[in-house]
Amino acid sequence: MSGSVSHGNLVYLSGQVPNDFKAPLKDQVETTLAKVDALLAEAGTNKSKLLSAQIWLKDINRDFAPMNKIWCEWLDEENKPVRACTQAPMATPDILFEVMVIAAKD
């Protein structure tokens, strides 16, 4: 599986999850978003060019508000993507957060 694929002026990231599945939600979200930053930079773009995001939470009732606070602080204030967020069983039971994004390139 590729971490990212570029096609034309678009960059598609695969679903990104934290490295430490045992970490608390805050750490899982922050480290996963850092992975997104790194993959976007490697592809020649950044979070200010996000177009779309899909987020999965293991427990949306418990984790949506704290995740959303971190997400909103991480976003570029001037360029917010469209987003979907849902609850889903994860590939590994300890994963609490997964995100997949599409971004534009110059």
Automatic annotation (TrEMBL):
It comes from the Eukaryota. Pfam families: Ribonuc_L-PSP. Gene3D superfamilies: RutC-like (3.30.1330.40). This is RidA family protein. It comes from Triparma columacea.
